[in-house]
């Protein structure tokens, strides 16, 4: 199975979100998607956002038996019908922290907020060193210093759209709702100023090892898991 992530810049018309969460998921399943997740950017930019370009209004993740063009064409067409602009990426998905704390029924909003970060590999780092700094070294730091209850690292294998922006990684992190306005919640410091300062400094130092912080694009979304690509593996018929 392969995962494809679509960044969407919809037309901005009333009803865009209704289409994303209404008709689209079912149509994607009809044309071959094994799983569908929709992230709608309805909460404004993250306080850590760098807005050098218009941020996506939605992120659509699909799981397919194969992402080759002949088998992906129907998904591309369905996504293209609802977006003024879309960029698709084939990714390898790593989930160091699964959402076991706040799962939601299929089709319903995941509690809290889902932060999306679009990463570019610094030019001075070769790909192997970049992956080691991000996945081998940074993962434990991120889990220790933040209040995340889900953490997904999508490494971009290649863009699938000819005009896709050059991103190398797409990060998904779920936080409690209060993290959007309270740094103590975001950095899991329980109101302790010294702990907050230590977590922020540790996180900043770790991020600087594998990203140019002035080039990362970050935004809050609401997450909806519409169909579970791993339902058979989980053995729960209610999630199929």
What does this structure look like?
- The chain is 30% helix and 29% strand.
- It has 240 residues and is an alpha+beta fold.
- It has a single domain, classed as 2-Layer Sandwich (Alpha-Beta Plaits).
- An 8-stranded antiparallel barrel has the order 1-3-2-8-5-7-6-4.
- Helix 4 (127-145) packs antiparallel against helix 6 (193-208).
- It starts with a strand and ends in a 6-residue tail after the last helix.
- The mean pLDDT is 91.
Keywords for this entry:
eight-stranded antiparallel beta barrel; 240 residues; Alpha-Beta Plaits; alpha+beta
Please write out the topology:
Blueprint: E1 2-9, H1 16-21, H2 23-30, E2 35-40, E3 58-64, H3 69-82, E4 85-97, E5 113-119, H4 127-145, E6 150-159, E7 169-175, H5 183-186, H6 193-208, E8 217-227, H7 231-234
Antiparallel strand pairs: 1-3, 1-4, 2-3, 2-8, 4-6, 5-7, 5-8, 6-7
Helix pairs in contact: 4-6
Q: Enumerate the strands of the largest sheet in spatial order, edge to edge or round the barrel.
A: 1-3-2-8-5-7-6-4
Radius of gyration: 18 Å
The CATH architecture? 2-Layer Sandwich
Q: How large is the count of helical segments? A: 7
| SSE series | EHHEEHEEHEEHHEH
Give me the secondary-structure category.
Answer: alpha+beta
- Main sheet characteristics: 8 strands, antiparallel, barrel
Précis, in short:
By secondary structure, the protein is an alpha+beta fold.
